[in-house]
Design a protein that fits this description.
By secondary structure, the chain is of the alpha+beta class. α1 runs parallel beside α3 and α2 packs across α3. Belongs to the group II decarboxylase family.
């Protein structure tokens, strides 16, 4: 709940689930937030820092919607959660600060729903 609450507090994101029922939650880029980057770019930047936070399209009628999801394993420490949040904040700030759009060439969708 801590992680999902902190991500929900960031202007760029909108929670779809909060992890209240099971320790899994998902969010999307808030509609209209930016046209410079996507969640695939955020996922790639987090991967560079060692985090595997998938971005992927939903299925069926919602296939145009891209989300990110985190599954919190038993034993996830507050320190580790804060490290992840720091990196999400830093990378979001970096992406939001771009003068132009991130290139899409070579960006590979590595996760699928």
């Amino acid at each position: 709940m801590f992680l999902s609450g902190e991500i929900a507090a960031l202007d760029a994101y909108e929670l779809l689930t909060d992890g209240r029922d099971i320790p899994v939650f998902a969010w999307r880029l808030r509609p209209g937030h930016t046209d410079k980057w996507t969640l695939y770019h955020l996922s790639e930047r987090l991967r560079i820092k060692g985090w595997l936070v998938p971005a992927y399209p939903l299925s069926g009628d919602q296939s145009e919607q891209t989300v990110m999801r985190i599954v919190c394993r038993n034993g996830l420490s507050r320190d580790l959660a804060e490290d992840l949040l720091r990196d999400i904040r830093e990378e979001t700030e970096f992406l939001d600060g771009l003068d132009g759009p991130m290139p899409h060439e070579g960006l590979v969708k590595t996760f699928h729903h």
